[in-house]
Design goal:
Elements (H helix, E strand, L loop, with lengths): L4 H9 E4 L6 E4 L3 E4 L1 H14 L8 E5 L9 H17 L2 E3 L6 H8 L6 E4 L13 E4 L2 H8 L4 E4 L2 E8 L8 H12 L7 E6 L8 H10 L7 E3 L4 H9 L19 E6 L6 E3 L7 E3 L10 E4 L7 H11 L9 E4 L4 H10 L1 H7 L3 E2 L19 E4 L15 E4 L2 H10 L27 E2 L31 E8 L6 H4 L13 H4 L11 H8 L2 E4 L12 H8 L2 E6 L4 H9 L3 E5 L13 E4 L2 H7 L1 E6 L4 E5 L4 H9 L2 H6 L4
Parallel strand pairs: 3-4, 3-6, 4-5, 6-7, 9-10, 9-12, 10-11, 15-16, 15-18, 16-17, 18-19, 21-22, 22-23, 23-24
Antiparallel strand pairs: 1-2, 2-8, 5-20, 13-14, 21-25, 24-27, 25-26, 26-27
Helix pairs in contact: 2-3, 2-5, 6-7, 9-11, 9-12
Length: 642
């Protein structure tokens, strides 16, 4: 039987394990990336491991999330990241150089290589044929130290594209259509490969948009072939030597095949408050718009923003609309400026923001109270914008501009003017904002600078044979990492200060959670389906661990979050009978006995203080059992675990 693209890359990087779906595999990692909201913790973890230099082919630390410096906290973290990276062999992308995924696609990603990043949208790298995974910072730290990255061998999905996109219909609409088909949990446990004749009509930036949005499906990752379009993009970036051709075998088999006719697609829009709440833009044409935000790692490429500039040229945005444009990288911003497109954007009345994540992570440009905000981003979770009652819709750049001009949600295909943008034959290459680490022979004397906001890494506890803990919180389906550990300008500066950050844990669901969890001592959380969807932020596990959470019982989990729970020493369990969820009341005391043996068999029995007994599954590998019994991945690694 032939192999898919992902199976070929996995086979070439396989350290141990069986490539049968559902089995655990250990992969060699070629590259890592971090960003500053998760990276500070990742490097604290790396330092704790005591390994002097990274052992990957290439590792880089980006600063793109916490770029608003309203106090010393973010500046101190940036200084720490720059100095710790220099000492340990990691490249450093300075603030303002751009969003990690956009810059990495442009400058450092290589077809056929493996990449893990401490950001859930790392699969953007699949747009040039990388096998790129979002992961928790602890997994990234281990990979930087030369350790393997462990995943459950995924199933293989394929999306066959036919036809060609019509004018004003975009790659973002392709992504939203797949979310409409599969939902935010439809890709769990699968790698999505994109193929068919239709992919030949998509540029690398368009492919990057699609693989970026694949994260919202819950997919392990997404990937495109590496073909002549990939080759021409790399040549234009001055990196032609990085090209490797990659395609699936003709007789490769897939667990599911989905066909999408590009020529039949319409502009799509995701309504509040989930990326899979998708309808056609035309169905909402009478909705008044207050704010439009263009940018993020999904839609901030030069290709995207040249189209934005062409649509805005000679026009003025509606007086009732506030429009922001965030270029994805310094390269994008400079090239927009050099060709005059930036002037067209500014003349329309738009506000141009820094080359950073910005509004996407709730770092500024929050909408007005109850405001309708159209965003070219990848997530529209409740409160993520920084405004609790903000009504956030996800759209393409074309839909965003059309709506900014009219003041209402507008189908861009109603615009009569043609729109034709060509990719440049050569990009402007200037990597001066990427700093190389100090030479290995000088590393011993390199100083790492820490500010007062950087606190010690929290310590987790090993499991005993029995655990009695309070059910401190019961929540419903699709609880995101934004529910567990919110983002935004108020909270993000404290990502390296777990004690302070803990005050905001589950604040969206229950403002009393933090104090109640601390008072309980040992705690358990009960959740519904797809618990922990969204970001890779390990703080959504580290902070509950700090607050005494020992286990989470849910109907199902998101992939990255379940790994982060295990790494933090929190036992993830699923209901054997999902109906038992309804029988549990918050504040009950739950007792779990025979934990070590139960981990081996994959079955545990839980008894509530009212006498109700139910069974849970804990499908763990031998390595995951050892990590939990040691009290987390760092303890396990220190004890010599592999």
């Amino acid at each position: 039987m032939g192999k898919t693209i992902a199976q070929k890359i996995i086979a070439a990087h396989l350290i141990s394990g069986d490539m049968t779906p559902g089995s655990e595999v250990a992969l060699k990692i070629d590259q890592t990336l971090t960003q500053d909201a998760t990276g500070t913790m990742a490097y604290l973890e790396f330092e704790t491991m005591g390994i002097p230099r990274v052992k990957t082919e290439f590792s880089i630390a980006y600063v793109d999330h916490n770029t608003l410096q309203c106090g010393f906290e973010n500046g101190d973290d940036h200084r720490y990241l720059q100095t710790v990276a220099a000492k340990h062999g990691v490249y450093f992308s300075r603030p303002g150089n751009g969003i990690c995924h956009q810059v990495h696609l442009e400058r450092f990603g290589k077809p056929g290589k493996t990449l893990i990043g401490s950001d859930s949208h790392t699969p953007t790298g699949g747009g040039i044929g990388m096998l790129a995974f979002g992961a928790g910072g602890m997994d990234v730290a281990v990979a930087m130290g030369g350790g393997a990255y462990y995943i459950t061998m995924p199933k293989m999905f394929k999306v066959n594209l036919t036809g060609k996109l019509n004018p004003y219909v975009t790659a973002k609409d392709v992504s939203l259509e797949l979310l409409r088909i599969l939902s935010v949990k439809g890709g769990v446990g699968a790698i999505v490969e994109w193929g068919g004749e239709g992919i030949k009509t998509l540029s690398v930036p368009e492919r990057g948009t699609i693989t970026n949005m694949g994260t919202e499906l819950g997919a392990t990752t997404s990937i495109f072939p590496s073909d002549e379009i990939t080759h021409q993009f790399l040549i234009a970036q001055g990196r032609g030597a990085d090209f490797v051709a990659l395609e699936s075998d003709p007789d490769a088999e897939y667990d599911r095949i989905i066909d999408i006719d590009l020529s039949a697609l319409k502009p799509m829009i995701a309504c509040p408050h989930s990326p899979d709440n998708v309808v056609e833009v035309a169905s909402l044409q009478n909705v008044k718009v207050d704010q439009v935000c263009i940018g993020s790692c999904t839609n901030s490429s030069l290709y995207d923003l040249l189209k934005v500039a062409a649509m805005l040229k000679g026009k003025t945005i509606n007086p009732s609309v506030s429009l922001s444009v965030s270029p994805g990288s310094r390269q994008v911003l400079t090239m927009l400026s050099d060709c005059g497109a930036l002037s067209d954007i500014l003349a329309s009345g738009a506000r141009v923001l820094e080359c950073a994540c910005g509004p996407c992570i709730g770092m500024g440009f929050s909408p007005n109270s109850g405001g309708v905000s159209l965003r070219t981003f990848n997530r529209n979770f409740l409160g993520r914008s920084g405004t609790k009652d903000g009504q956030v819709y996800l759209v393409s750049p074309e839909t965003a501009v059309a709506s900014a001009l009219t003041g209402f949600i507008t189908d861009p295909t109603t615009i009569a003017e043609p729109l034709s943008i060509q990719m440049p034959d050569q990009f402007l290459v200037n990597d001066s904002a990427v700093l190389a680490p100090v030479p290995a022979e000088e590393a011993e004397n390199a100083q790492v600078l820490r500010g007062p906001n950087i606190k010690e890494f929290p310590k987790s506890k090993p499991f005993a044979e029995e655990l009695t803990a309070q059910l401190v919180l019961k929540v419903g389906d699709n609880i995101t990492t934004d529910h567990i550990m919110p983002a935004g300008a108020k909270i993000l500066p404290y990502r390296s200060n777990i004690p302070f950050l803990s005050k905001f844990c589950f604040e969206v669901c229950d403002p009393t959670f933090s104090e109640r969890a601390k008072a309980a001592g040992d705690g358990i959380i009960v959740g519904g389906s797809n618990y922990g969807q969204g970001s890779s932020r390990e703080h959504a596990a580290l902070v509950p661990m700090y607050l005494g959470i020992r286990g989470v019982i849910a109907k199902s989990f998101a992939r990255i979050h379940i790994a982060n729970l295990i790494n933090s020493g929190i036992l993830p369990m699923t209901f054997e009978n999902p109906d038992d969820y309804e029988k549990l009341e918050q504040d009950a005391n739950l007792t779990i006995s025979g934990i070590a043996e139960g981990m081996k068999t994959g079955k545990l029995t839980v008894t509530a203080d009212n006498g109700f007994t139910f069974n849970v599954n804990c499908d763990l590998t031998a390595r995951q059992q050892a990590i939990l019994l040691a009290g987390g991945l760092l303890n396990y690694t220190k004890e010599g675990g592999q």
